[in-house]
């Protein structure tokens, strides 16, 4: 006999869901049984923590462009999903969260795990409801999938455990006709009016020093974006989520932007007179051009995002590829390439500076040489993830990717502990591609047990752990942002290599410069999941490409009372960090 849970699973199959991440529990036993019966169509991936299930569903949606789905039991199972679901919300990806509840007639009676998860999920979700019976399930399961995709956000279904077992043909109101909600997606592509496109082209044609800021929304418009840059003679700065929109060594890009970015990107934002933003709402407003002097055009699929970070004179809502193609037919090729050439010279200097760091053979191993050597071994179609912290900066600056690669990270949420779940989702989404992760010892420790999930599925995963015994980004934020001495950021040591071995994978350790190449060669010769821990200098600075004056003043104030301040000062005195410390003033925000 078909149950409400069976209706749910069949609906998911109709919506082309092929993978669900979660943990079993007594609050979702009915759904688990329905999944057991349909293993031919849906793969259930058991995780070690529900937070990982939500991160994996989010990452799976990012990697594939399809709906990600996670499943958790009542009470704590559901609440554990929240961090990963906020990752989906803030990065605008479609995820369906399914949670269990206690018996329907015991809700709000202080019974065990009696948590009102629809109330808990109210802020994170774009669709959020309790399923009342099997006939209701038929409607709301489809609407949940459709709404998550249409609004690029989180949908949530909460189902009492006895409702899951209810027969599908038990009862139905006369107004609820069977299958009146179709399990179909009706796509749409908004297109800006022709006069708006002409207005944007005119503004860009009038500009003489044009900079482009591009993000994840430009991933489907690589060819069109490159043509725009060629026509305008415009260097392209890449927001972190858009790292793979152009080859990192493409002569039209200045690489990343912001505290994790390059000096060349900072220069083009400071010196441009016109800005074109494509598929990005990069959040650090202080790294944008001066809004009082720079005009801007923005392309985004979401009208709510137009003008969110920088005032725009023309906003174009729609698909980036479609709009850029229309723009390109109206743009005049600029003969003056001096702004582009200056950006290229700046990028050449930046690369020389980074090469000095990646070749440094110091007594205390620095992280940059290890990350660079790790990145050189990434396959042409390899998939790279990072966690959140100094490891993100290291990967952004020292690993060069091609457009054939894929890259993902917890973007606007910037959550620690996301790197390993993202990597596992990548391996499960694309079985023929190798996966690589650069993570920190702080973030990996939070979800270390999930490595056993990678081992269970024999994923081709190589994880580089930056073991500096420090929450180093947080430490530098304390010092640079606020002028406070570093406090409570030191970490107790964990032997991640031994942990990898204990879980059935392979563990390796790098503790000196001469060990980098042979250890990485041995690690990359392994087929299954590998952890490579690199024991590096805990006092290595994490600095923006050009230190702003206020950051420098705060750092000077904080250092005397910061543990290890002498070692930090010695590190900052070497090149190119000494040059980066010379800094520049932030532009003042204004109308």
Would you give an account of this structure?
α10 (222-232) runs parallel beside α12. The protein contains 24 helices and 18 strands. The N and C termini lie far apart (65 Å). By secondary structure, the chain is α/β, with parallel strands linked by helices. Strands 2-1-3-4-6-5 form a six-stranded parallel sheet, sandwiched between helices. Strands 9-8-7-10-11-12 form a six-stranded parallel sheet, sandwiched between helices. A six-stranded parallel sheet has the order 14-13-15-16-18-17, with helices on both faces. Mean pLDDT is 95; it is low at 585-591.
Overview in brief:
This protein is of the alpha/beta class and 591 residues long.
For the biggest sheet, the summary is: 6 strands, parallel
Q: Spans with pLDDT under 50 lasting ≥5 residues? A: 585-591
The level of helicity is: 25-40%
Radius of gyration: 25 Å
Q: State the end-to-end CA separation.
A: 65 Å
Give the assembly state of these chains: single chain
What is the number of beta strands?
A: 18
Strand % is: 15-25%
Q: Structural class of the secondary elements?
A: alpha/beta
Q: Estimate the mean pLDDT confidence.
A: 95
The DSSP helix count reads: 24
Strand order of the largest sheet: 2-1-3-4-6-5
């Amino acid at each position: 006999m078909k149950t409400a849970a069976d209706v749910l699973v069949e609906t998911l199959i109709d919506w082309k869901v092929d993978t669900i991440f979660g943990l079993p529990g007594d609050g979702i036993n009915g759904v688990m049984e329905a999944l057991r019966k349909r293993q031919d169509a849906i793969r259930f991936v058991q995780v070690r923590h529900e937070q990982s299930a939500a991160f994996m569903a989010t990452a799976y949606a990012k990697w594939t462009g399809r709906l990600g789905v996670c499943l958790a039991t009542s009470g704590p199972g559901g609440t554990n999903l929240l961090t990963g679901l906020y990752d989906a919300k803030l990065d605008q990806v479609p995820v369906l969260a399914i949670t269990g509840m206690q018996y329907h007639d015991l809700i709000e009676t202080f019974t065990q795990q009696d948590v009102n998860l629809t109330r808990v999920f109210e802020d994170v979700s774009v669709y959020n409801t309790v399923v009342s019976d099997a006939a209701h399930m038929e409607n709301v399961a489809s609407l949940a999938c459709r709404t998550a995709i249409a609004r690029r956000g989180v949908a949530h279904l909460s189902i009492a455990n006895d409702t899951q077992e209810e027969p599908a043909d038990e009862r139905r109101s006369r107004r609820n006709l069977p299958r009146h909600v179709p399990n179909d997606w009706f796509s749409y592509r908004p297109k800006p009016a022709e006069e708006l496109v002409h207005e944007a082209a005119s503004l860009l044609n009038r500009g003489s020093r044009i900079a482009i800021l591009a993000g994840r929304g430009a991933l489907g418009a690589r060819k069109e974006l490159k043509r725009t840059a060629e026509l305008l003679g415009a260097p392209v700065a890449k927001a972190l989520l858009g790292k793979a929109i152009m080859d990192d060594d493409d002569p039209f890009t200045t690489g990343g932007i912001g505290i994790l970015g390059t000096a060349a990107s900072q220069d083009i934002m400071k010196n441009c007179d016109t800005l074109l933003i494509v598929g990005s709402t990069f959040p650090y407003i202080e790294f944008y051009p001066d809004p009082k002097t720079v005009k801007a055009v923005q392309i985004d699929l979401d009208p709510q995002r137009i003008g969110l970070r920088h005032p725009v004179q023309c906003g174009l809502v729609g698909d980036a590829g479609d709009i850029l193609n229309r723009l390109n037919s109206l743009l005049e090729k600029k003969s003056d390439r001096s702004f582009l050439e200056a950006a290229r010279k700046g990028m050449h200097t930046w690369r020389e500076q980074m090469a000095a760091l990646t070749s440094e053979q110091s007594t205390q191993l620095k992280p940059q040489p290890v990350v660079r050597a790790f990145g050189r071994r990434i396959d042409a179609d390899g998939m790279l993830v990072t966690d959140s912290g100094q490891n993100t900066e290291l990967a952004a600056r020292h690993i060069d990717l091609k457009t054939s690669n894929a890259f993902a990270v917890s973007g606007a949420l910037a959550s620690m502990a996301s790197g390993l779940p993202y990597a596992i989702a990548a391996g499960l989404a694309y079985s023929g591609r190798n996966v690589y992760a650069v993570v920190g010892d702080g973030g990996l420790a939070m979800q270390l047990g999930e490595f056993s999930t990678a081992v269970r599925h024999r994923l081709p995963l190589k994880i580089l752990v930056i073991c500096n015994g420090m929450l180093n980004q947080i430490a530098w934020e304390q010092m640079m942002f606020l002028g406070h001495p570093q406090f409570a950021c030191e970490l107790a040591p964990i032997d991640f290599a031994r942990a990898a071995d204990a879980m059935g994978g392979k563990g390796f350790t790098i503790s000196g410069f001469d060990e980098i190449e042979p250890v990485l060669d041995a690690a990359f010769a392994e087929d299954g999941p590998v952890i490579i821990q690199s024991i590096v200098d805990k006092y290595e600075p994490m600095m923006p490409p050009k230190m702003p004056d206020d950051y420098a003043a705060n750092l000077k104030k904080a250092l005397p009372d910061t543990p290890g301040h002498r070692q930090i000062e010695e590190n900052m005195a070497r090149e190119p960090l000494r040059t980066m410390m010379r800094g520049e003033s932030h532009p003042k925000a204004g109308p």
